[in-house]
Amino acid sequence: MFETSISHNNVPVLRIEGKIIGGAANALKREMHQQIEQEQGRGGLVLDLAKVPLLDSSALGVIIATLQFLKKMDGKLVLLNPQHAVINILQVTRLDTVLEVYSDEESATSALGS
Question: What is the tally of structural domains in the chain?
Fold first, then answer.
């Protein structure tokens, strides 16, 4: 369900596959915090949602909590290439005004450097 790679900008990109609902949100939280600990606060994290067809309120809560945690450390959390259904959820909840969303990896990883 999770795979992490390091971009050419030295930014961790967490690639997620499958629905993030129910217990999967807790697994996402553990994985994101593990990546943040390994990175030791050097900028942030990119969540690649290209293969996530659906997420629920618990997943949104985990994403927002992680965003707030990273902001306290002067870091960022950005979303990469979410599917149409996920974009709709972000728009309905107005989280698209809080979360940065990018359609290509280079832009997403560059955003963490700024």
Answer: 1
